[in-house]
Amino acid sequence: MKTKYGYTSVYLATDSPEVARLAQRTYPKFHFVTQAIDRGWYEDGSNARIEDRMKGLAGRNLRERIAMEAVADLEVMSRCDAFIGTFSSNMGRLAFELMSARKNYIPPFVSLDNAWCAGFSARFSRVFTRNGFRRIDC
Fold first, then answer.
1. Model confidence band, residue 119 (pLDDT cutoffs 50, 70, 90)
2. Cα pseudo-dihedral 96, 38, 23, 8, rounded to 10
3. What is the phi/psi pair of residue 84, to 5°?
4. Residue 100 has pLDDT above 90, yes or no
5. Nearest residue to 28 via CA among 45, 8, 50
6. pLDDT tens string 40-74
7. Which of 9, 19, 32, 80 has the fewest CB atoms within 10 Å, i.e. the most exposed one?
8. How many CA atoms within 13 Å lie on the side-chain side of 129?
9. pLDDT at residue 136, rounded to an integer
10. Taking Cα atoms as reference points, which of 133, 63, 49, 32 lies closest to residue 91?
């Protein structure tokens, strides 16, 4: 993205404070931006998925905070110029789809895992192209 489009600013949506610090140390030529929140409360010392870690947090009346931080990340991600992330993540797919809808075109993207697929959970999906609908096998 840097070579092709000249992008040097990155919005980093992460639940890990260590990932944010490591990104800046590893890639000093980039400017990383994250939400100005304390991400430490997400950590529980395990490598469990955030969904599993949140189950324990939800009992502490933090559902609203979890939701607001997720929505804020989603809102900012959807306003970026390009997307680098995972399409296996609902947040990643939704951010990319909102970004595309806001721009009215498919922005530059790199998926770190799966190809993007409309109706990701369906075995066969239909996508709309300039030539009408076509069936794709996801």
1. low
2. 60
3. -130, 120
4. yes
5. 8
6. 666 666 666 666 666 666 555 676 777 788 888 89
7. 9
8. 8
9. 56
10. 49
Q: For residue 89, give both structure tokens.
A: 């993540």
For the chain, which residues make up each domain, given as ranges? 2-137
Q: Are 48 and 57 in contact (CB under 8 A)?
A: no
Query: How big is the CA angle at 26 (ends 83 and 20), to the nearest 5 degrees?
Result: 60
The Cα 80–Cα 99 span in angstroms is 7
Token pair 């947040």 is found at 91
Cβ atoms within 10 A of the Cβ of 42, count? 18
Quote the DSSP letter at residue 116: P
Is residue 137 within 8 Å of 124, Cβ to Cβ?
yes
- Per the prediction, the chain carries an average pLDDT of 79
- What burial letters (b/e) apply to 93-127, b meaning 16+ CB within 10 Å? bebbeebbeeeeeeeebebeeeebeeeeeeeebee
